[in-house]
Structure formats: structure tokens, C-alpha cells
Design goal:
There is one protein chain. The chain is an all-alpha fold. 73% of the residues lie in helices and 0% in strands. It is built from 16 helices and no strands. 50% of the residues are buried.
């Protein structure tokens, strides 16, 4: 393959050229992140003022709808495989835009619950669909680059959204939350319009009509991918630590001021937005296997967690604690910046094309489960000893790194390597389920024709 249509990723060697509609995809994601940043930091207060309902009712509805959204994720994966990630992505943007436009009108509990439920289904499914969209529009190392760019823009957008809503509230007080709801609706609608300009590469979209892809039974038979998902769960616990465990550790164990938490979040967000693309580019140009760069990110997580154990044991003065905490946050953030693009591209590339949605819905559950378990797990361990949760996280991160290295020879070669491989892959490197499904069409592994099991 030497020549491609204008705007598509070129060549099978590097896969790093611009893809069709890339600017629109990234701009849309950044605008959507501004909408998220305008309400996530104030979610309970936001919905309380917008709907007029009590905090208790708002909290109950958000919990129930959030859990329901998790149960909907497998259906979202099936929809991606049937209709294509781009179409489903546009539907989710439209649902989110409509939901926020309706929130100011949802003054009763049933109305709020209905709008919150539909919006939560779209919110929870969005990461699965966005990851699948990356697989549709990019190939090879371009996937790693898009992962890094999207993460940087999302961090920058959420920070900008939080600043924007702070200004709105300063000008209009609590009434500003209503304006923010309409602002979110406009942001998601505009993001959807921009993403509509994205074009999948050849063969990257939905399955051909009349050839339903393999269902979740294929995912469950793919032991290497399930092991990859399990390894990501161990790392995902570390991702949850910054927002859940870090503030508690500072105030209850280190007896530091709440301002340290704000400083830590500021450093993390600024680094993610400012150097995320640069770090990911350096990792990509190094030629490191995705499994090994993701493992390096987990090792950096482990180093940060061990440093926090040491800090909690020594307990130096306030100034030394501040400097040490900020240094730890820098190491932690570097781990995040190294792991996230490689881990995300690894999961996208390890998923057979025709069932990518189902595979990534399964993979995304590792993040969702870690987020759900983190509060109770961390608080329970913290009650025993402030250093204990960091010890558990360090062991988990080390286990994830080891698992990633051991999985190298069991995952598809073009998933492990950022650049597509131009040689025949040994059978031992292909997951058993994918190899069995690909047997009828060895010339086109991952194509819909190669996926024999019936759809679920």
C-alpha cells in the first residue's frame, strides 16, 4: 500500500501522517471537554441549582443513573460494531446536547431522573466509542499520537471549562448554573458537528451488511485480551488515586492544608495539557513496544506510590512536604503520560476490527470498575494505616507492569508494535479466539468475513 486517498493516514510503515478530519476530531474533543469541565467539578451543586431538587435527591439519582450507565456499555460496544463508531459518536454528542438543554426544565424528580438517565448512558458509553473512533480513523503509530493529543486537549479543555464556569458564577451567582447548562448543550452540539467531518480509513468502520460480527463470546474466549484488561484494572486503580486517595492522605495522615490538594491537581493538569504530546512523541519515536512503554508508565506509578510511603513515614516539615508532594505528582503525571497513549493504542490495536466496539467496551470496564471500587477500598485501607493503600497500589502497579511484559508474545504483533509489521506473524502471537475466527480468511485477519461466531 503506497498511495491513499487525500487526508487518510499514509503508508503502513509509520502511520504517523495526518488522518482525514483530524483537526475537527481534536477540536471537537477539546470543545466537548470544556463542556465537561463546566459541570464535573460542581456536579452536585450544579444539578441542585439547575433543577431545584435537594442535594440528597440529586445524589441518589446520579448514583443510580451512573450505575445504570455502566450496564449499558456492552450495548454501546455492540452498536459500534453494527453501525460504526463515528455514527454512534454523533448520536452520543446529540444526546448529551439535548440532555443539558433539558436540565433547566427538569424541575421534578421524575423529569430529572429521566433526563439524567439518558445523559448518563451517553456519558458512560462515550469513552468506549471515542476509543473505537480512533481505531476507525487511524492506523499504526497515528493511534498513539491521537491518544496523546486527545488526552492533552481534554485536560486543557476541562481546565478551561472549570475557569469559565467560575467566571460565570462570579458574574451571575447561582443563576449562572442555568447559563452553564445551556453552554454545555452548545458545546456538545458544536463538538458533534466538528466530529461529523471525520472520515474512517478504508475498512475501519462498521461491519458489512449481512455479516454480523462475532459477539461477546469471542471476547470472553480471548484470554490474552482479558489478561490485558485485568492488567489495566491494576493500573486504573492508580489513576483513581489522585482524585480519591491523595486529598484524604494529605489531610488525615500528613495533616497538610487542603491547598496542597489544589496545588497537586494544578500541577497534574498543567503537565498533562502542556507536555503530554511531547512525552508521547518521545516514547513513540524511541520505537519502544507498546507493552513496554505502558509497563514503564506503571513502574513510574509504583515509584510515586513508594515515595508517598516514605514521605508518610518520615513526615518532614510543611515546606519539605510541599516540595516532596509536588515532586511525587510530577513522577505520577509522567507515568500517566507514558502509560495512557501506549495502553490506549494497545487495546485499540489488539481488538479485531469487526468487533472492536465489544472489545473496547470490555476493556473500558477495567477503568469503570476501578473508579467504583476506589473510594471504599482506599478509605478502608487508610483507616488501618495511611501508608497501606499506597503499598497496595505499588504492588498493583508492579503486577500490571509484569503482566504487560509477559503478554507481549500472546498479543497480535501489530498491536505490540506501534508500526505495522510487514512479516507473517507466528501463530503463537495471535490470541486463540482471534486466530480461530481468522482461519477462514487468512488473507484478511480481523475482517468481518473472518469472524464466524454469531452476534450476541
Amino acid at each position: 500500500m503506497t498511495a491513499k486517498a487525500k487526508g487518510t493516514a499514509t503508508g503502513t510503515g509509520t502511520g504517523t501522517s495526518r488522518v482525514a478530519g483530524e483537526f475537527s476530531l481534536l477540536t471537537g474533543a477539546g470543545i466537548g471537554a470544556i463542556g465537561i469541565g463546566m459541570y464535573v467539578p460542581f456536579s452536585l451543586v450544579f444539578f441542585h441549582h439547575v433543577t431545584g431538587l435537594s442535594f440528597a435527591l440529586v445524589g441518589m439519582v446520579l448514583t443510580v443513573t451512573g450505575l445504570t450507565g455502566l450496564a449499558f456499555m456492552p450495548l454501546a460496544g455492540s452498536a459500534v460494531d453494527r453501525y460504526g463508531a463515528r455514527r454512534v459518536n454523533l448520536v452520543l454528542y446529540a444526546v448529551r446536547a439535548a440532555g443539558f438543554a433539558l436540565y433547566p426544565l427538569a424541575g421534578s424528580l421524575p423529569a430529572f431522573a429521566a433526563v439524567a438517565l439518558v445523559t448518563a448512558l451517553a456519558d458512560r458509553s462515550f469513552p468506549v466509542v471515542q476509543q473505537s473512533l480512533i481505531g476507525e480513523v487511524a492506523r499504526g503509530a497515528a493511534r498513539d499520537r491521537l491518544q496523546a493529543s486527545l488526552r492533552a486537549l481534554q485536560n486543557a479543555g476541562m481546565g478551561a471549562g472549570a475557569l469559565l464556569v467560575s467566571g460565570v458564577l462570579a458574574l451571575w451567582g447561582p443563576d449562572g448554573f442555568t447559563f452553564t447548562a445551556y453552554g454545555n448543550a452548545v458545546a456538545f452540539a458544536l463538538a458533534g458537528l466538528l466530529v461529523s467531518r471525520v472520515r474512517p480509513v478504508a475498512g475501519g468502520g462498521a461491519s458489512p451488511a449481512g455479516r454480523p460480527p462475532a459477539g461477546y463470546r469471542m471476547v470472553l474466549r480471548d484470554r490474552p485480551f482479558l489478561a490485558l484488561t485485568g492488567a489495566n484494572f491494576l493500573t486504573a486503580l492508580g489513576y483513581a488515586a489522585l482524585s480519591v486517595l491523595f486529598p484524604l492522605y494529605i489531610t488525615t495522615w500528613l495533616h497538610g492544608p487542603d491547598s496542597l490538594t489544589g496545588a497537586a491537581f494544578t500541577v497534574n493538569t498543567a503537565l498533562c495539557a502542556g507536555i503530554g504530546v511531547l512525552v508521547a512523541g518521545r516514547v513513540r519515536r524511541s520505537g519502544a513496544r507498546r507493552t513496554r512503554s505502558a509497563a514503564l508508565g506503571s513502574l513510574l506509578f509504583a515509584a510515586a506510590f513508594v515515595a508517598l510511603i516514605v514521605l508518610g513515614t518520615l513526615r518532614p516539615g510543611r515546606s519539605a512536604t510541599l516540595v516532596a508532594l509536588l515532586a511525587v505528582v510530577v513522577v505520577y503525571t509522567l507515568g500517566e503520560l507514558v502509560h495512557s497513549p501506549s495502553g490506549g493504542a494497545l487495546s485499540v490495536s489488539a481488538a479485531p476490527e469487526a468487533v472492536r466496539g465489544r472489545y473496547l467496551a470490555t476493556y473500558q470496564l477495567s477503568y469503570s470498575l476501578a473508579t467504583a471500587l476506589a473510594p471504599s477500598l482506599f478509605t478502608g485501607l487508610l483507616a488501618l494505616d495511611g501508608r497501606l493503600p499506597w503499598a497496595v497500589l505499588a504492588v498493583a502497579a508492579l503486577g500490571a507492569a509484569l503482566a504487560l511484559i509477559r503478554l507481549e508474545r500472546h498479543l497480535p504483533a501489530d498491536a505490540v508494535h506501534a508500526r505495522p509489521v510487514g512479516v507473517v506473524v507466528a501463530a503463537s502471537t495471535v490470541p486463540a479466539a482471534a486466530a480461530a475466527a481468522a482461519a477462514p480468511a487468512a488473507a484478511a485477519p480481523g475482517s468481518a468475513a473472518a469472524l464466524a461466531p454469531a452476534a450476541v
